[in-house]
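Batch manifest, entry 17 of 40.
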Amino acid sequence: QNGMFFEYDGATLYAVLRNSINQASGTVSVTNGSATVTGTGTAFLTQLQPGQFIVIRGQSYRIVQIVSDTSLSTSPEYRGTTIGNAIVSQTIDVRIPQSQFNIDRIDGTGPSGYNIDLTRMQMWYIDYSWYGAGFIRYGVRGTNGLIT
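Output type: structure tokens
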């Protein structure tokens, strides 16, 4: 639901920052075993979209269909205890494509000269400052053993 990772979609390599802290408006009622999420004071049509992930009571669900501002369906079906007045958070991914990496694009043109070959095994790393007050650094260990 929250984290940092590399993602390759078959065409583009991304560095991704994921967070699920953006709370949607209103509250929802959910029933164990049901895919229907019913909102009160919600704006599903303008705040969410099919295919997006949401978090309800600590569990992630993919939005399958948005019927109205107050009704949507998810996959999988709701797995928690039946409840009303639950908060929904949106899962938002910030994807930075390799072409926009800011120090070294690992395409042979950067300071390291390293050109990543995604058909081969790589040693990846991600480090970050704790408590959310700092930066995140993504990288790979090049063929010379140096961090790129």
